[in-house]
């Protein structure tokens, strides 16, 4: 009896596993032509300076709307792109589009200070040594000032190969581009890394920001990250600010910049051209 049930279980699990594999393969096939079919687009989430509330830039976030599958979450398709190597084609396309959108903002919007665009760069894009070439080609083709391009790298992209990463980041910063460490605090080695990896700033992961009002540990950690970053001459962005209280406490603790639903959702480039704060 048990044997039979076991067999059925096995068949059930292996079928579920096959379906998961098939789904990934299918997503990868569909993602391959998605850019050319116009299914991929960028949305922009504004970033604000806490001392005066000014909008200072925006983060580019990729969206995929497939005709049959609908919206596919970035956490899913970015992972597929990363695993399959497709990100090495998609990444430069995203970078180029974001730089050219940022040039349009400077022309159309009337901001007192030019707004930066922050672009997410995946571990694979960093490991493939072509990034400095891709970045300089984007800046040259679009005419965007280098200091208005911010690259966001996750801790995991940098960990393990600090020497290579440091050389690459120094080269990028030498071009005038800014570099941010994304999802900061989620990797365990966080704080000690900052001495070895040259970055302009860190983005405190939204899992810490989520609980700063309720959990004294998360507030203590956030406060410590801000103090330590500042002592190293590094700026701090808080992500995932969903409540006024979070904004207030981050501002009180000396955090430099913030983004989140309470401040502004990601919007299309056309909406962003009109966006007022
Ligand atoms: P991320 O770079 O940490 O981006 C922040 C994510 O938090 C975005 O999710 C954004 O929509 C979401 N978010 C912003 N404010 C709030 C808030 O107040 N509350 C909550 N709960 N969420 C908020 P999204 O767009 O789904 O992107 C997820 C991740 O996918 C990004 O995390 C990034 O790692 C990756 N990603 C997105 N676009 C790109 C891209 O063009 N290239 C690469 N390599 N990765 C990308
Ligand atoms: Mg990011
Ligand atoms: Mg993040
Ligand atoms: Mg907590």
Automatic annotation (TrEMBL):
It is found in: Cell membrane. Residues 24-277 form the EAL domain. This is EAL domain-containing protein. The chain holds residues 432 to 708 of 708 of the full protein.
